[in-house]
Amino acid sequence: MARTRFAPDRGLTSRMVTTMFFIGLLYVVVVGALVVLLKGAWIVVLLISGAMFVAQFWFSDRIAAFSMGAREVTPEQAPELHGAVDRLCALADMPKPRVAVAESDVPNAFATGRNQKNAMVCATTGLLRRLEPEELEGVLAHELSHVAHRDVAVMTIASFLGVLAGIITRAALWSGVGRNSRDNNAAIAVLVVTLVSAVVYAVSFLLTRLLSRYRELSADRAAAILTGRPSALAAALTKVTGQMAQIPTRDLRKAEPFNAFFFAPAFSKESFGRLLSSHPTLEQRLEQLGRISAQLGRP
Q1: Closest of 87, 123, 99 to residue 236, by C-alpha
Q2: Residue 4 forms part of a structural domain
Q3: Which of 248, 246, 249, 243 is nearest to 263 (CA)?
Q4: I want to staple 70 with a disulfide (CB 3.0 to 4.6 A). Which of 15, 65, 147, 248 is the partner?
């Protein structure tokens, strides 16, 4: 990680390396299986897989930001938000990322970007309206720590790998297997490729969920130590989580697909997402902040 004043986390670094290794290995397995099974379309498979890998590395952060409705704002348009980011970046000794706002009543924030130079930090209008200045700084410090630790880049890339496996599989089957539908091996090829794709998606999903829960605790810890105000972050967590229950179900459903990137998860009433949540529980996060508060000698 680039040198900043955010507390380093070797546990997070080792988990990121492990996650990317296994997901990359799965990606290679999918491409290899398609090349072997779809001999007539191996060039198409390699071209699509290569193009998708390059696209996800260079553009996945922009796609994620666009999907979540992030709109970059100037200091004149959002002076308080820019002021908070300026103070935190000076405190952390890190480059200032782009600052954005998302028009959503769901109180949340997220960060995107493959490195510190092209990172973006975004807060929703619902978050800006509900939090006090110290609470907002705690949330923004949490998001900036994701950028400093580079785990936001790992999550962005890893989250797209499972989706890409499905896209590559469908494209290869459409271009190769369809022509050889009379071949006795075609049905077996379709079955094997489908099973491999399903396994890759399931494993990549579980790996990213495990990494996501740890990285949220790591970001809470780094933000609390940097600002020296774990109580402010705890207050923001409590307030944001409590306000989720008052958000219309329709808005929560729109936000749910992006929970892995958010400061706090959004769950609709009929959601089963809590079973495989991208975040640790509120109790776990508050307990950790309580311990840090005690270590810092603050109530």
Answers
A1: 123
A2: no
A3: 243
A4: 65
For residue 215, how many C-alpha atoms fall within 13 Å in the half-sphere facing its CB?
Answer: 33
Question: 103, 143, 270, 287: which one is catalytic?
Answer: 143
3 within domain boundaries: no
pLDDT in tens, 230-265: 999 999 999 999 888 788 777 777 777 777 788 888
pTM score, whole prediction: 0.82
> Is residue 150 a contact partner of residue 218, using CB atoms and an 8 Å limit?
no
Burial 47-69 (b: 16+ CB within 10 A, else e): ebbeebbeebeeebbeebbeebb
CA distance 294 to 51: 50
Q: Per the annotation, does 72 bind a ligand?
A: no
Whether residue 105 is contained in a domain is answered as yes
Q: What Rg do the C-alpha atoms of the chain give, in angstroms?
A: 21
Residue with tokens 């999550």: 155
Domains held by the chain: number: 1
The alpha carbon dihedral of 271, 287, 263, 74 has a sign of: positive
- Give residue 112's domain range: 10-296
Is 132 annotated as a binding-site member? Answer: no
216 annotated among ligand-binding-site residues = yes
To the query of whether residue 256 is one of the catalytic residues in this protein, the response is: no
User: In this structure, is the dihedral angle defined by the CA atoms of residues 283, 285, 288 and 290, taken in order, positive or negative?
Assistant: negative
Q: Which has the higher per-residue pLDDT, 278 or 111?
A: 111
Residue 90 lies in a domain: yes
For the chain, the first-to-last Cα distance in angstroms comes to 32
